[in-house]
């Protein structure tokens, strides 16, 4: 991260405060009168105890912010998180990390606790993203006095330690920038420790570095990652606790904020970052509230998705009737991660909810068989994702050509072969075998006809065997949709009981797309209704049960 370069300030004889404010100093001794009149704390002069003034300022900062500079690089953290998925992670608290909330900042929350949580989250992001205002927010004397007077007695030891640390910092080091960089690494650390262990596999270093670079430049994504890390930490501690409710309450506030950011964006990249952050909030709703809540957010961001697609002529095609449709192969093979993530969510929700896709897609050619980026995270083979999308479009009555008939789609699935994906963190072949099992499970989940068809029953048995391969691994969360498909065709109580138990286990932090408990209720309704006594069922029976249990 490059250092900020400031314009030349006043004459070097000025006090430190006037230099930072870029004001003309009156050179009064021992303290500048201009600072006093303006309500600022004079930090003294370079020729009379400058080092002491800096130490005093650092003592005040000790009461405001605690930063751990012993953090690992993001790439190392990601690998460690994936390898040690079952380890107990340190319980980081934003209360000890971020400054106290400034008055007048943030939204008017419905409760004091929610307001405090929002202010803490806001301060954490602002100290990272306000590159052009180093330490200015700490120069208010009221805040300094308040913190020092309230915490002086119990923080003497901490203050002395930080004072000694500041004494050892060379004059050429920008301590404020170090704190900002340290906090950004902390947020990345916290986010990855909560979520990376559930990724399908760790992306290669070039892809990972590109992702980290983009996250570091996006204020909206830093907000979203802060909230996501907090929310999943609370889910792991107490799924019914007040802390989780506070995090959920912040989602609405951030959605409004990101919407205003999007429409005020000066560049397409800023708009894309806002869409990506809103998709992260949609996922948080899927995981913590429910599938319908997340789907509502997906509907709201549809205009933003179309706006970004319209900016690139390669991502849409003309329908014979004169209208435009989004090219599924071109979009999912593009370099725009936010657009690919929307496609993935739209395809998954259309499948699992039995609804029409939000977008009219065109299928002009096949997708690039090379990993489309999302495969590293979600584990869905790109070729099969396109087949699922075409099935969704066919069920929705789409007439956008070319839409292949079912024989072509079935042949494409049968001819597809899972590719070996070797992760940098694989210490044995166990995880590689598990990933191949998940890929193969997608093939069997697609090639179904009816619940009593012998091919469906054979695929169900195969998915069950493949599921046992990943039962004890974190990436087992990717079996969610497989389980729903198996439950749809399960005829025997033993199979249904296994599916029910597996779906219920997808809760808390063990959630990838959706919570399993909601869909266990849908399948229970199906099993005791159209499928009672092992009777054959169709996909329409499942959709009717979903509409009854989870109406949109």
Provide a short characterization of the protein structure.
It is built from 25 helices and 3 strands.
Strand order of the largest sheet: 1-2-3
Q: Approximately how much beta-strand content do the residues carry? A: under 5%
Q: What's the β-strand tally?
A: 3
Structural class: mainly alpha
How many helices? The count is 25
Structural domains: how many: 3
**Whole-angstrom Rg:** 27 Å
- Which range best describes the helical content: under 10%, 10-25%, 25-40%, 40-55%, 55-70% or over 70%? 55-70%
Weakly predicted, low-confidence segments: 1-11, 49-114, 124-155, 168-175, 441-449
Average pLDDT number: 68
Topology:
Blueprint: H1 16-21, H2 33-38, H3 50-62, H4 74-83, H5 112-129, H6 141-151, H7 156-167, H8 175-195, H9 205-217, H10 219-237, H11 242-263, H12 268-288, H13 291-300, H14 302-310, E1 316-318, E2 324-327, H15 328-332, H16 337-353, E3 361-362, H17 374-378, H18 382-395, H19 406-415, H20 430-446, H21 454-469, H22 480-489, H23 493-504, H24 516-527, H25 539-549
Parallel strand pairs: 2-3
Antiparallel strand pairs: 1-2
Keywords: Nucleus
Domain Zn(2)-C6 fungal-type: 14-42
Protein name: Fungal zn(2)-Cys(6) binuclear cluster domain-containing protein
Task: Please provide a written account of the structure.
This protein is mainly alpha-helical and 552 residues long. The protein has helices at 16-21, 33-38, 50-62, 74-83, 112-129, 141-151, 156-167, 175-195, 205-217, 219-237, 242-263, 268-288, 291-300, 302-310, 328-332, 337-353, 374-378, 382-395, 406-415, 430-446, 454-469, 480-489, 493-504, 516-527, 539-549; strands at 316-318, 324-327, 361-362. It has a three-stranded mixed beta sheet with strand order 1-2-3. The two termini are 45 Å apart. GO terms for molecular function: DNA-binding transcription factor activity, RNA polymerase II-specific; zinc ion binding. Residues 14-42 form the Zn(2)-C6 fungal-type domain.
């Amino acid at each position: 991260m490059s250092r900020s370069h400031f314009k030349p300030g006043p004459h070097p004889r000025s006090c430190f405060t006037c230099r930072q404010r870029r004001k003309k100093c009156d050179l009064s001794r021992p303290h500048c009168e201009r600072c006093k009149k303006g309500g600022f704390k004079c930090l003294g002069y370079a020729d009379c105890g400058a080092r002491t003034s800096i130490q005093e300022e650092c003592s005040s900062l000790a009461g405001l912010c605690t930063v751990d500079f012993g953090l690992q690089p993001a790439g190392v953290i990601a690998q460690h998180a994936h390898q040690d998925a079952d380890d107990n992670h340190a319980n980081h608290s934003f209360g000890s990390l971020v400054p106290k909330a400034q008055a007048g900042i943030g939204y008017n929350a419905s409760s004091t606790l929610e307001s405090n949580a929002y202010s803490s989250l806001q301060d954490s992001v602002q100290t990272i993203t306000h590159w052009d205002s180093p330490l200015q927010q700490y120069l208010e004397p009221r805040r300094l006095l308040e913190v020092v007077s309230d915490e002086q007695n119990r923080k003497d030891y901490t203050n002395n330690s930080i004072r000694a640390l500041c004494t050892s910092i060379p004059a050429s080091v920008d301590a404020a920038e170090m704190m900002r960089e340290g906090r950004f690494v902390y947020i990345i650390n916290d986010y990855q420790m909560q979520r990376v262990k559930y990724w399908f596999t760790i992306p290669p270093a070039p892809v990972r570095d590109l992702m980290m670079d983009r996250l570091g430049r996006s204020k909206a994504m830093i907000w979203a990652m802060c909230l996501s890390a907090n929310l999943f930490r609370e889910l792991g501690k107490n799924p019914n606790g007040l802390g989780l409710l506070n995090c959920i309450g912040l989602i609405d506030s951030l959605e409004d904020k990101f919407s205003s950011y999007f429409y005020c964006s000066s560049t397409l990249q800023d708009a894309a970052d806002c869409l990506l952050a809103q998709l992260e909030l949609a996922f948080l709703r899927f995981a913590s509230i429910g599938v319908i809540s997340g789907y509502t957010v997906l509907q709201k961001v549809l205009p933003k998705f179309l706006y970004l697609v319209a900016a690139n002529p390669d991502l849409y095609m003309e329908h014979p009737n004169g209208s435009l449709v989004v090219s599924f192969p071109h979009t999912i093979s593009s370099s725009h991660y936010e657009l690919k993530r929307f496609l993935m969510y739209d395809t998954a929700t259309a499948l699992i909810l039995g609804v029409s896709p939000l977008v009219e897609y065109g299928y002009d050619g096949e997708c690039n068989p090379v990993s489309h980026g999302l495969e590293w995270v979600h584990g869905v083979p790109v070729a099969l994702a396109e087949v699922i999308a075409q099935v969704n479009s066919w069920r929705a009555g789409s007439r956008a050509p070319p839409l292949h008939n079912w024989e072509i789609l079935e042949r494409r699935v049968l001819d597809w072969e899972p590719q070996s994906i070797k992760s940098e963190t694989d210490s044995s072949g166990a995880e590689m075998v598990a990933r191949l099992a998940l890929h193969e499970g997608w093939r069997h989940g697609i090639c179904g006809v009816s619940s009593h068809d012998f091919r469906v029953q054979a695929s169900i048995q195969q998915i069950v065997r493949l599921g046992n391969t990943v039962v004890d691994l974190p990436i087992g969360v990717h079996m969610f949709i497989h389980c729903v498909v198996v439950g749809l065709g399960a005829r025997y109580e033993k199979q249904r009981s296994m599916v029910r138990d597996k779906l219920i286990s997808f809760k808390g932090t063990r959630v990838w797309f959706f919570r399993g408990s909601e869909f266990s209720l849908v399948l229970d309704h199906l099993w005791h209704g159209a499928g009672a006594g092992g009777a054959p069922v169709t996909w329409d029976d499942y959709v009717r049960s979903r509409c009854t249990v989870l109406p949109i």
